[in-house]
Amino acid sequence: MNGQGWAEIALTLAVTVALAWPLGIYMARVWQGEKTWLDPVLKPVERLVYAGCGVKPDKGQNWIAYAMSFLAFSVASFVVLYLILRFQNFLPLNPQGFPGCSPDLAFNTAISFITNTNWQSYVPETTLSTFSQMAGLTSHNFLSAAAGIAVAAALARAFAANRSENLGDFWVDLTRISLYILLPFSIVIALVFVALGEPQTLAANAIAHTVEGGKQTIALFPVASQEAIKQFGTNGGGLFNVNSAHPFENPNAITNFIEIVIMNVLSYACAVAFGRIVLARKDARALVAVMAIFVFTAAAVVYAAETQPAPALVAAHADASVNMEGKEVRFGAPSTAIWVAATTGASDGGVNAMHDSFMPLAGGMAMFMIQLGEIVPGGVGSGLYGMIVLALIAVFVAGLMVGRTPEYLGKKVEAREVKYAMLAVLILTVSILGFAGVAAVVPVALKGLANPGPHGLSEILYAYSSATGNNGSAFAGLSANTPYWNATLGVAMLLGRFAYAIPVLAIAGSMAMKPKLGATAGTFPTDGPLFIGLLIGVILIMGGLQYFPALALGPIVEHFQVLNAVAAAR
Amino acid sequence: MFAQIRPAIVATLFFTLLLGVIYPLVITGIAHVAFPAQAGGSLIRDAKGQVIGSSLIAQNFAKPQYLHPRPSAAGNDGYDASNSSGSNLGPLNPDLAKRIAKDTAGLQSEGAGPVPADAVTTSGSGLDPDISPANAHRQAARVAAARGVPVGEVERAIAANTTDAWLGIFGQPHVNVLKTNLALDAAAPARPTPPAS
Asked: For residue A116, what is the enclosing H or E element?
């Protein structure tokens, strides 16, 4: 560890949070349907979509109609994407002549991309055609992100409302978020990425005759256009098997910095926009502070763990100052550490190093960040609504201590909302621990493991945490492209997305109907250090403690084995 | 529910066309006009115009007169640029310990001091085009001897292809292997490899 490394981690986080403010202010305007400077170009497109959809933009929806629209859109997306993947051999732009995906792989991948998870059971460069990557995956990188942000916008309107049932219109939110936020920024970012070295071509590959007389087939894709929205929409599904560790997806330190910043900035910006619409800017600032504290702590733990001596290097008497297995030289430990914290905290799931080869505490920290519920800062939209769920539980706990009905942002929090909040939180635990428990004893699942011992358990636990949390990163040694893994991980992704978002919309519906109250002397302040501390505690207990026994059998026991191995080798 | 079927279908198809077809094609078009080299994969061509590799992608070098890249887990034989992969071996995996012990033993005599970690570990991508400056300097004597040139000449080629941390803060210094080797060949064409003794 050194000063440069700490400076890189701190500066990357600081720039991300700073940029979230202007972006959040702009996003609040988009959520509210206000004028933007892109109106002259985009307003006609927006009107065209409404006309085609038969939507009256000013009508508004109650929570049930909003949730139904969200589900209907997800079903339609699933069907179209499934068909594209399954029948890519009959579609254009398949220069390598890849066959259609198997039914279980197409099922898993379609769910993966409509739920903003982007778990990849397959090796993209040997499986997917250029058309599947573009029309199939790039488009759902936008749409699943827009759908998540839409739910957050609905929740913001619910807290701002006074005895109303109108949460806005899902189709309007989806359209405006895609057109005014995701698309224009992605265009700019994609062109910057090309300038910095990322390929953008429809050619399938280049054949090189190498200096020493070999032949090398270099796979190519329209990389930059997907890379931009992959990170900006906390998607994380790469064009290549190794994701942003691949030099074409992440050629240098500058692209690495930009990719980290854009994979978190929208999630923080959602909190900022929420604060402006609910007229609770200080409360939103407290939420951002909680998010940033977790990300910095996680980065510090990973940085410290990855600069501990790795047993294999010590035993061979090689330089053991950094665990370089699975890392790229241009990034090293600090760039990897802040990336890991950002990607696992944000449900992005893109990686710039192989998590499977991390030291146990670094891999464990990555898993722990996912298990906290993908709320620090979480996926775009989904992070914010997950954080609000935890904030409701936090004020409920505080209310229990003093025997007073708790309030949050001027809304009374009553039994109904707390039940929905707990339902959402518990779904994650049931899915992660339930599926992992079964997989740990089912032979057909165990065949996929790449590493023996506690590390194998970590591979299982990580996979279901990642799928349920809609993260998508992996301990990639796991061979997950089998019917068992594809099916169970697909179901885990569905639970993590919809069994969470629907209770959130129910909370929104219930909150919107309540009167908006002013703060009184008895109101627990939710914008100060006391609340920040309480919320951190609740997140650690709700997210963290439930998984502690499982983590103790995986990364924690492996950590002590590593200490033993290093001591023995010296 | 029925009221949502039409918008669901229309929105999915419209946005698939806009975001999945028009957006990437427009970016591709602009990229090919504005940044043709990068858009095509940063390919390097020889004097005859034949592609010899990409400056961003590792290719294997085993001969003594060249800098050697990091070990690679991509594809069956390594350096497969159509099948990127890390080793995904956990820190306690016996296969990892065996591989690192074997590779380190082979490099121990090449220079002074401990073998740099990046010289005996596989990268995340299996296609890492770079090595650490310490790794490059440790190989310089071997490269110079094989070429029959002073070490200083090799060091100059290494220095010319070293990239420092961005702004002194972001990322780590690294040496591009392919570009260094091409610079060496351009400065002093390698003698034919002497027959193995």
From this structure: none
- When scoring B76, B82, B139 by the number of chain A Cβ atoms within 10 A, the one with the most, hence best to mutate, is B82
The Cα A344–Cα A6 span in angstroms is 19
Measured CA angle at A540 (ends A277, A398), to 5 deg: 60
Q: List the single residue in B27, B63, B165 with the smallest CB-CB distance to A225.
A: B27
The angle that helices A139-160 and B5-17 make with each other, rounded to 10 degrees, is 130
Query: pLDDT digit of tens for each residue in chain A (570 aa)?
Result: 899 999 999 999 999 999 999 999 999 999 999 999 999 999 999 999 999 999 999 999 999 999 999 999 999 999 999 999 999 999 999 988 999 999 999 999 999 999 999 999 999 989 999 999 999 999 999 999 999 999 999 999 999 999 999 999 999 999 999 999 999 999 999 999 999 999 999 998 999 999 999 999 999 999 999 999 999 999 999 899 999 999 999 999 999 999 999 999 999 999 999 999 999 999 999 999 999 999 999 999 999 999 999 999 999 999 999 999 999 999 999 999 999 999 999 999 999 999 999 999 999 999 999 999 999 999 999 999 999 999 999 999 999 988 888 999 999 999 999 999 999 999 999 999 999 999 999 999 999 998 888 999 999 999 999 999 999 999 988 999 999 999 999 999 999 999 999 999 999 999 999 999 988 888 899 999 999 999 999 999 987 788 999 999 999 999 999 999 999 998
In chain A, what residues touch B119 (CB-CB under 8 Å)?
318
DSSP line for A77-140? HHHHHHHHHHTGGGSS--TT-PPPPPHHHHHHHHHHHHTT-----S-GGGT--HHIIIIIIIHH
Place of tokens 């310490």: B134
B110, B111, B115, B116: CA torsion to nearest 10: -110
Q: Which of B5, B15, B131 to mutate to test binding with chain A, by most A CBs within 10 Å of its CB?
A: B15
Minimum distance, in Å, between the CA of residue B79 and any CA atom of chain A: 8
Question: How much is the ipTM here?
Answer: 0.95
Number of residues assigned to chain B: 197
Q: What is the CA radius of gyration of chain A?
A: 23
Question: How close does chain A come to B147, measured CA to CA in Å?
Answer: 15
Helix A3-31 and helix A281-306, axial crossing angle in degrees, nearest 10: 150
Chain A 322-381, residues with CB within 8 Å of chain B CB atoms: 322-332, 335, 351-354, 356-360
pTM of the model: 0.96
Classify residue B31 by burial, with Cβ atoms within 10 Å: 0-12, 13-18, 19+. Answer: buried
A208:B51 CB<8 A:
yes
CA dihedral (A520, A522, A527, A530) in degrees, to 10, reads 160
Q: Which two tokens stand for residue A415?
A: 């039994």
CA distance A484 to A410: 47
Helix/strand/coil for A507: helix
Q: Give the whole-angstrom CA distance, residue A492 versus residue A466.
A: 9
**Centroid of chain to Cα A362:** 18
Asked whether A42 and A290 are in contact (CB, 8 A), the reply is: no
Q: Which residues of B touch A97 (CB under 8 A)?
A: none
Q: What is the distance between the alpha carbons of residues B134 and A378, in angstroms, rounded to a whole number?
A: 38
Give the integer Cα–Cα distance in Å for B26 and A558.
49
| Burial (Cβ within 10 Å: 0-12, 13-18, ≥19) of residue B45 | exposed
Whether residue A347 contacts residue A378, with contact meaning beta carbons closer than 8 Å, is answered with yes
Q: Identify the helix (H) or strand (E) that includes residue B145.
A: helix B133-147
Residues of A in contact with B13 (CB under 8 A): 80
Locus of tokens 């940044």: B35
Closest by Cβ to B52, choosing from A209, A315, A561:
A209
Name residue, tokens 């708790």.
A406
